[in-house]
Amino acid sequence: MDIEFVRSRFIKHFDGQTGNIYFSPGRINLIGEHTDYNGGFVFPGAIDKGIMAEVRPNGTDTIMCYSIDMKDRVEFKVNDPDGPRTTWARFIYGMVQEFKQLGVQVGGFNIAFAGDVPLGAGMSSSAAMESCFGCALNDLFANNEISKWDIVLAGQATEHKYIGVNCGIMDQFASVFGQEGKLMRLDCRSREFEYFPFEPKDHTLVLINSKVKHELVGSPYNDRRRSCENVVSALAEHFPGKHFETLRDAEPDELLAVENEVSTEDYRRAHFVLGEKERVLAVCDALNHGDYETVGRMMYETHEGLSKEYEVSCEELDYLNQLAREAGVTGSRIMGGGFGGCTINLVSNDVYDDFISTAIAKFKSRYGHAPEVYPVVISAGSHKVC
Fold this sequence. Notes:
The radius of gyration is 22 Å and the shape is globular. It has helices spanning 3-13, 87-101, 125-141, 148-163, 170-177, 220-238, 252-257, 264-288, 292-308, 315-326, 349-367, and strands at residues 20-29, 41-42, 44-57, 62-67, 72-77, 109-115, 182-187, 193-197, 203-213, 331-335, 340-348, 372-376, 383-384. The chain is of the alpha+beta class. β10 and β11 form a beta hairpin. It folds into 2 domains: 3-197 and 380-384, Ribosomal Protein S5, domain 2 (2-Layer Sandwich); 203-376, GHMP kinase, C-terminal domain (Alpha-Beta Plaits), CATH 3.30.70.
C-alpha cells in the first residue's frame, strides 16, 4: 500500500490534518481446509496485501469515515444504537461497539482507508478491515492494553452481529498474529498456535483466481458439515467407551470400523478430513526441515481430496490444478471453501514465468476469460506504520 496516497486522501477530506497510519494484512491458508468445524488445524499466514487506514481522534462524539476505494463518506455517533446502513461503514461501527464492550472509552475520530486485497479472491479483505480498525482503536483509545486475541474476537463478533456473516476465527487470527516469513498452525479447538518458517528462497507463492463462483442448489457447506456430524455419531455409537466431540478425535482405523455404518458419501468426506489433519502435521514437519517438495506433494493430495472425496471443487479449479501439474509446479490446490475462487500454488522460480503465461492463455482459451494472478509474500500482521 502507498502511505503517501492514503495520507493525501486523509488530508483532503479532513481539513489538512494528519493522524496515525495503521496496516493489517489479508491472509492465505497454505493447507487445512474444512478442518475448522471438525476441531482440526488450519495453517494460515499474513500476506503483503491488506488494508491501510489513517486515523485521528477529533474530540467529538462523531465518527467520520471516508472509504478511498469507494469514494464514499459516512458519519455516525459513537453511541448510535443502530449504526450506519452502508456495509463498509458497519465494519468500523462494529469494532467500535465491541471495543466499548471491552470497557474502552472510544471517542469520535476521523478515518480514511484503502486496500489492495483483491475482493472475492479469498484473501479476507473483511478480516483485514476489522483488524486494522481494531489496531487503531487499541492504540488511540486503549493505550494498547487490549490483547491480540480480544481484537481477533472483536473482529469475529463484528462479522456475526453487524455484518451477518457467521465466520470462524482463522481470518482475523492470521491478520492480527501474522509474522514475516512465518506460517501459523492454529488448533481450532484450543486456539493454541505455533509459528513455522516459510521462506522458500527459490519458490514463489501465487494465487490464481478463476473468477468463477458457482451457485449451487441447497446448502453444500451445511451438507458437508452434516456428513461429518453423521460419522461422529456413528463413531460414538460404535465405540461407547470413547468420547467423540468432532472428527478430530477419530483415528483412521476407527473410521474404517464404521465404514459400513454410514453412507458412502459421508465416509468419503470423513476420510478427507482425517487425511487433511495428517497432511497439516506433515507440512509442519516438512517446513521445519526446509522440505518444500513434501509441502507441494501434500498440497496436491489436498486438492485431490477436496475434488474427489469432499466434492467442493469445480471444472475450472481442477483445470488450473491440472495445468500446474503439467508445468511442474511444486504444489497446487484449491484455497478456501471451494466451488470457485482460487488455487494457491507453490511455484519454483525456474518454471514460474512459463506456468503463469501458459495458465492464463489456456484458461482463457477454454473458458473465455483470463484468470487473475496474485503473487503473495508472507508478511507481518496488524501494526502501526507511523
